[in-house]
Design goal:
There is one protein chain. This protein is mostly helical. The protein contains 10 helices and no strands.
């Protein structure tokens, strides 16, 4: 008898890849809600450059951040819509809770010390593995939990939730989630984390900048000035107040991504495969 040869993959045969499971799939309703919240968020962050100098909004510059803090209601709505539409199962809820709690616990580490914020690298890697829908939910929930943990509840919290939701969702939208691996993927995530850390700091500056009033006339928001003048003031404000902090945050994110990234990515992908989020749960009849 001739033994059966075991088939092997030749060098010319393409390697098959399995698409990463997604704990939360963005459907039409959640996508529309997310787009609405993002559009309102752009207005909420950028109103100093969107409103003309003679507008009523500029006349209430000190009240505007408090008014826009009403975004929290929309944020809760978009997260609820995402979860309800995706049919989020108990395993995904458990992973969401664990990662949000871990991120919230990491945030106070290094607080007040030159931007040492290790939670950002975890958000990047989680968004990469679990997708943009899970990423937005995780980023928003982590900031909410961290605000409760540290007592940082205030009108800035909805802005932090939205900005971190964008930050984590962006990692889930990076190219090659099913094929790109190894050093190339780490380099991509490190580059994204570096740029997004600066972007996060910049847009969060927009949330607090109008509060300055006349405390620092050369860099404060002037409701009567034209857009180019206020833009110059804002750049000076970012340079003087947060550039060093943002650089520290970006550097820490890059270093942790390159050093701990392979192990964390492997653990997240293993947990995702074992959880089998997209496999329907069935029960055998008794």
């Amino acid at each position: 008898m001739t033994p059966h040869a075991t088939p092997t993959r030749t060098a010319t045969q393409p390697r098959t890849t399995t698409a990463q499971a997604r704990a939360i799939r963005l459907g039409p309703r959640s996508t529309a809600a997310l787009a609405l919240v993002s559009a309102v968020g752009v207005v909420a962050f950028g109103w100093p450059f969107l409103a003309p100098p003679a507008s009523e909004l500029n006349a209430h510059a000190q009240d505007a951040p408090w008014l826009f803090a009403g975004l929290l209601v929309l944020l809760v709505a978009v997260v609820a819509a995402t979860i309800s539409e995706s049919g989020l199962g108990p395993k995904a809820v458990a992973m969401l809770g664990v990662l949000a709690a871990t991120g919230a616990a990491l945030r106070p580490i290094g607080a007040g010390t030159a931007g040492i914020e290790p939670m950002f690298f975890l958000m990047v890697l989680s968004g990469r593995v679990l997708g943009p829908g899970f990423g937005f939910t995780l980023g928003s929930l982590t900031m909410f939990a961290s605000a409760l943990l540290t007592g940082g509840v205030g009108p800035w919290m909805p802005f932090q939730m939205l900005a971190m939701g964008w930050f984590t969702m962006g990692a889930g939208l990076l190219p090659g989630p099913d094929r790109l691996r190894g050093r190339a993927e780490l380099a991509l995530l490190a580059l994204y984390g570096f740029l997004a850390a600066f972007a996060y700091g910049t847009i969060m500056n927009l949330a607090g900048w109008p509060f300055m009033g006349a405390l620092a006339s050369d860099i404060a928001f002037d409701p009567h000035a034209a857009v180019p003048a206020n833009l110059a003031r804002f750049v000076a404000y970012c340079t003087a107040t947060s550039l060093g902090w943002d650089l520290g945050r970006a550097a820490v994110t890059v270093v942790l991504t390159l050093t701990l990234g392979p192990a964390v990515l492997k653990a997240l992908r293993r947990a995702t495969r074992r959880a089998a989020f997209e496999t329907a749960v069935t029960f055998d009849p008794r």
